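Private note to self, pasted from the team thread so I don't lose it. Backbone tokens:
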């Protein structure tokens, strides 16, 4: 098991690749609702807060032993029983996100292929996630690299193709008030990015080096730039008014890219690639919850690998019993983003301050 490790590149691929799906799903509509034409630069406005979050996580991992993950750090800082309660919250929330995004991905696939097979897609997705979660972590890391490459090529080509057709009158704010609204659009960006905290619970499986910190910040900056360009082409092609009303504005953008004589329904092809990001995200959540289960219930340490089964089972139950069209419930997404912000930014900052106070004593 000592060789079953992830490289720093692989963990960043897992985090950044897994966030492509929720970012593409949620950010165009949410940023347009909050800031109109100014919403597309919200990832750049959120970059400073994200760099702060990355710095907090980096400081927490500093001077820790190899094999130490975020769960072990929280246990050392806050104490045994407070940490178990805190980690149980992460575990429950992670399983909820697992079920929620499985349902959303299944619904999106069903719509893309114009079938009524949401339940079938749920089963297929979770079967693949379970297979990855009980297997070797290094194999999941290599699969994540391949998936990320396919996602980067596909989404990069779409952005590049649409960038030359952007209507700049759609993308430019009409007045200073619109510009100031861009700050409020940073909230959904931070809410989506905060899910990356679950990658920290896999930190004990990462091969460490001094260059890792700079690489992590580099990935974060590049990701913010990439999501800014993605939002720019959606706003510049669809328009902020229509963008705020559509459930998935990115699909509307893709529908205009059909190639005559080749792909008449480009959204079906993109949907097939998009699901690779869902698999990365769901795999990260399943592996993190597997690790968290052992920290919350130490007796399960001998069978950690198989703890992925009840984790995925809970996710499956949630995915099956969640209501139809759950992705259209804006109130639910506000709760989800708020929960992500609490667990992904507020709690790590609190743990960092607690760690600093502990060292001062």
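Design output:
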């Amino acid at each position: 098991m000592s060789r079953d490790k992830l490289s720093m590149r692989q963990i960043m691929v897992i985090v950044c690749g897994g966030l492509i799906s929720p970012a593409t799903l949620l950010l165009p509509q949410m940023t347009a609702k909050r800031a109109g034409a100014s919403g597309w630069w919200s990832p750049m406005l959120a970059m400073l807060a994200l760099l702060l979050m990355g710095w907090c996580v980096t400081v927490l991992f500093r001077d820790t032993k190899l094999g130490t993950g975020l769960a072990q750090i929280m246990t050392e800082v806050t104490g045994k029983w407070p940490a178990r309660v805190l980690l149980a919250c992460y575990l429950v929330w992670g399983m909820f996100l697992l079920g929620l995004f499985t349902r959303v991905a299944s619904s999106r696939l069903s719509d893309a292929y114009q079938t009524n097979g949401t339940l079938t897609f749920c089963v297929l997705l979770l079967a693949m996630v379970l297979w990855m979660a009980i297997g070797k972590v290094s194999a999941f890391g290599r699969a994540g690299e391949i998936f990320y490459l396919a996602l980067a090529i596909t989404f990069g080509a779409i952005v590049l193709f649409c960038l030359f057709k952007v209507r700049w009158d759609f993308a430019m704010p009409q007045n200073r008030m619109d510009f100031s609204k861009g700050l409020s659009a940073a909230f959904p960006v931070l809410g989506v990015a905060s899910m990356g905290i679950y990658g920290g619970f896999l930190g004990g499986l990462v091969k460490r080096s001094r260059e890792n910190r700079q690489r992590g910040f580099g990935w974060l900056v590049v990701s913010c730039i990439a999501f800014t360009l993605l939002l720019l082409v959606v706003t510049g092609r669809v328009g902020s008014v229509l963008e705020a009303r559509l459930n998935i504005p990115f699909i509307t953008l893709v529908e205009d890219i059909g190639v005559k004589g080749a792909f008449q329904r480009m959204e079906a092809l993109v949907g097939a690639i998009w699901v690779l990001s869902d698999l990365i995200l769901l795999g990260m959540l399943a592996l993190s919850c597997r690790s968290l289960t052992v920290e919350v219930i130490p007796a399960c340490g001998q069978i950690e690998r198989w703890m992925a089964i009840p984790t995925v089972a809970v996710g499956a139950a949630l995915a099956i019993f969640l209501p139809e069209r759950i992705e259209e419930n804006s109130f639910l997404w506000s709760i989800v983003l708020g929960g992500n912000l609490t667990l992904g930014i507020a709690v790590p900052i609190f743990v960092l301050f607690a760690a600093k106070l502990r060292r001062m004593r």
